[in-house]
Structure formats: structure tokens, C-alpha cells
Amino acid sequence: MRRLYILFVLFVTLLVAASGCRSEQPPASLETTYSIGTLATVRALYPDNSWLPDAYKSQQYGDLGATIKTFTEQSLRRDGLDGATVKVLVAGENDPVIVVIDQVNEITELYRKVHPAFLDAKHAGQALLGVQACKETKDCWDPEKSKTAPWAPFLPLGLPMAAQKTVLFLDYPPVPAIEGMDYLNNFTMCRWARVLGAAGADNPEAYETIVDARPIVAAGSNEAAQLPDALKYFANSAGAGDYLAPMLELLSNPGGGDKALPVAIMGRQARTTWGNLVKAKDIPVGILEADASVLGDSGLLVPWIGCNHPDVTSYGCCKEDAGCAAGDQDLMENEAKDFVVACWLMAMAQADPKDPKVVLGECEDRWVNKVRPEDALTLCIQEKLDDNIIPSRCKTWAGAWAFCSAQNSYACTQVDTGCGPYDANPGTDVPPEELRPKGWDNTCNEFRPSLATRPE
To answer: Is the whole model's pTM more than 0.70, yes or no?
Structure first.
């Protein structure tokens, strides 16, 4: 009997060898899978028809799984994974929501850590606590009772959260972001991406991870004064949420390493909040003030720079422009400041950056003090695209290039402030598309609001 068994085993072995087969381990999984919390918790963190104001309810927010899929794929794409697709498994109210990414790599493995942390009780959950505290406080929530642009909590969804190069801290988001199901779908970030591209960023979206000082969607103009105080409701205040420092800490150091990403603090409201976070003073950090401070519990120094709100320059014009008010004649000055900030962010995002103040001095030299001819042309083009006086504003990058080339890179020339002829006929010397900066073809005019109220 034993001899027969041995012969059988030998026969099977020879048969397998003859067929070219060999025993293998099961293939490794080609998917990254993780939970982002229970259905009940996650529903409150993503836009959903179950709680959105009527003005924002639509088919696009009727399926929570599809909403999570859309925003997660946006994030992955902006983190450099263009081909990644996501499945979202949704079961019972108290069951975990499972995210499945069809790739396994360094980025998706980091998503397994950062995505659940972003949504947990120590981060996004704190934003909801602040919102709830505001709703329970008399005269805090939506004091103007806006019908066309009601307030709603809205977290920074769909942005890079693993391979980002910088973090932006500002008052945000405006209504088009939630209406368009894209956190960057608005004039503010469209215009800032154009500046980043013109300043040399190969992928502007890598520099656009945002933490909102007050994570509430609202009208983008003339509403800052009505929004709840960021420090009172979102910065470790009694009875409210401790959202800002933990979320800034997470997104400025997603890999948990020994170096934090640089942060741009954009606009007076955000600069005042930041001054309290890092200096415990109700004094805004200055525009083009740069330093590094400890933020949160990690003890890491976070490099930061104070700057204008991204929309400010679009309210500017030249004194030569007919109708340019005295308080708005700072177009060229503010454009240069924006480029100093973009330059600083890109330099500080390098693997081994210099001291923040040293980098600031170098960027001021490049874009303000010792401007090279090619940079003067870049500044002029952006000024002609941003000018708030319509006859002087160029409608196309090619028209702005032609105007600035003809006017010695001076946007506020008294010789000719009109851009119409250059838009209509920019000539043949305009650089070909492949040599133009990232974002050159997006004037953002489709988003451009009626700029009646200048942000601080």
C-alpha cells in the first residue's frame, strides 16, 4: 500500500513537471483597502442630500458612495495618480464605509493612514463640533438668512492629501465649490493656480491643499464679517471644536516625518487667526512676513508666510485706468507680492529648504527689487489679466503677452491702457502653447464675480 502511494505521488509530480506547472503563493492584492468610519459618521462629513440646504441638493449628492468616490478620485488625481479608480462599499448605518483603490503604491498606502485620520473625531469631527456650537448660539449661524447662498459645513475634500507640496490657510470656500462638486471650482483658486503656473509650478494643484479657517460654504463676497469667529468655534475653545491646529498639522505633515510643509496664510482674517495660533496675540501676521512656528502636538516647526487673500489683486487697477478708484490703484504692487509668495512656497517645498526669511529675501529680490526682463513680462501679463477695469483687462493670455511686449512690460502705461486690439490680433510672435506657463489658457473670467466688495 505504501509503495502504491509513493508511486502515485511520483506520478503526480512528473505530471505537474511535464505540464510546465509549478506551485505558487497566491498573488498579492493589487488593491488598497481601508475604512473611513461608520456610515452615520461619514454621511455628516460629505455633502449629502439628507442634510444639505435645498439650494445645494441635487442628483450629484443623492448617492453618498458616489460622492465619496468622486472626491477621493479627485484627491488621487491631484496627488499624481491619474489612472486610479475607487470603489466605495456602503452597508448599514453603523457599519464601516470601505474605500477600495485599484492600485498599491506609496501614495495609496499613505491614503490608508491620512484619509481616515482626516475624517476622524480629532480632525473633521472637530469642525462639525464648531458648526454645531455656532448653530446653538444665538445670532451666530447664518445671520443674514441667505436664501440663494445658505451656509453649510464643507470640508476640504478632493484635494491632495499625500503628495502635496504646500498648505494654504484662508477663509474659504465660496458657493461655486459645492455647486460644482469640486473644491477648486471657483475664481479664487482658478486665479491662484494661474499665478502659481506663471511663477514656475509644473503642477499648481500640488500647492493647493487648503485648510479653511471657517469650514463653512458661503457667498464669496461681502460675507466674511458675518461668519462665526474662527478662534471661538474652531480653535480649541470651550464648548466648540479644536479643528484648526490638528488639521493644519495633519495636512502639513501627512507622512509623519521630521519636516513640515510650508503654509501660506492668505487674507487678514486668516492672518489674525494664525497670529493667535502661533503667537497667542490678536494681531494679524504681516503680509510678506515669514517665519517658522510649532503647531499642534508634534513639536515640528512649520514654515509660514503671510500674504494677501488670492482675490485681492483682482480688485486692483492702474491710476491711468478710467474709473480706477484711489484705493484700488495697487494692481502692480499686489501682483508682485503674490509672485513673491508663490516663489517662496515653491522654494520652501524643496527637500532641503533654506531659512524662511532667507528665502523671502531671495524671492523679493527676484520679483520686486531686481526684476529680470522675462519676469517683468510675466508680471505684466498677469496684471493685464487681473485688472478690474474691463476695457484695460485682457481677455486672453496671448493678448496680454502682445500688449506687454509692445509696452515694455509695463501694465499701467499711459500710452495705451486698452487691450481690445491686442486680444483681437496678438500677432505672430506670441510663444507657442507648449512654451507658455501652466494655466496660461485660463483667464478664470467664467468664475469672475462682480468685484464690488474687496476682500481683506
So the answer is: yes
